[in-house]
User: What shape does this take?
Amino acid sequence: MANRSEGRVALVTGGARGIGAATAERLAEDGAAIAIGDLDGAGAEATAADIAARYRVKAIGLKANVAVAAEVEAMVEEIALRLGSLDILINNAGITRDNLIYKMTDEDWDSVAAVHLKGAFLCARAAQREMVKRGWGRIVNLSSVSALGNRGQTNYSTVKAGLQGMARTLAIELGRYGITANAVAPGFIDTEMTRATALRLGRDPEEWKEEMAQQIPVRRAGVPRDIANVIAFLCSDDASFVSGQVIYVAGGPRG
Ligand code: NAP
Assistant: This one.
């Protein structure tokens, strides 16, 4: 829907590629100005430049590690300065460090917790200041079907469940300022993340994807756009009474 996010400024973390890039593109299609914050600064700039050229919106790419408070603060300050505000936050940056519990290292645990949980917390804390000033805001956390439990992902399933609790709590605290907070929980989506998982399992990514698709009720793997479409709705005025919810987007009740 063209123009439904016109005049808004959106930050998509981890938006250089995958679900984040598709979400940035979808929000730009709806008229929002875009900031992409990613560890991969060059990738963030390239994706932003592509979006700016195709959708004729302002789009900037910034290098930032969401797990580092000073970098998040600097990123949000720069967005407010260059784009004028910050109205929409998509907490999308993520990593996996899968291992069965008996092989999972402290580093596997700490790195996943730092990027997903601390990263989302730091970004939400910084972004809500800008949103409260204007009395309008949207926060969407990327959760996962893994929040329901998944073999080899004690770290990841824990943080993805945590991101649901965070969205519910932000919804309660920030609702009075016109800010909604929700979580979107994707099932199997074809991205670099799922391809890397296939390779780690010693599988051919295309074959693995086809196999996964057979277990999904709609009989296909998800694509980043499937997630971006739902996020774009949650970021619109049409969704102003939807807050503190978890929406599974998995081609079935559980992908
Ligand atoms: P992806 O293709 O691996 O993209 C993730 C992006 O996040 C990368 O550009 C990565 O940058 C960036 N990133 C990682 N750590 C960061 C940090 N500390 N600070 C800033 N940026 C960082 O992943 P995806 O599949 O699009 O997943 C996006 C989100 O959806 C994640 O939260 C993921 O957990 C969630 N999700 C995905 C699926 C799926 O099936 N794909 C399912 C459920 C949930 P670098 O390239 O520099 O590392």
The pocket of NAP is lined by residues 13-14, 16-20, 38-40, 65-67, 92-95, 115, 119, 142, 144, 186, 188-189, 191-194 (CB under 6 Å). The helical segments are 18-29, 41-55, 69-83, 106-134, 154-174, 192-200, 205-214, 224-234. Strands lie at 9-13, 33-38, 59-63, 88-91, 137-142, 179-186, 246-249.
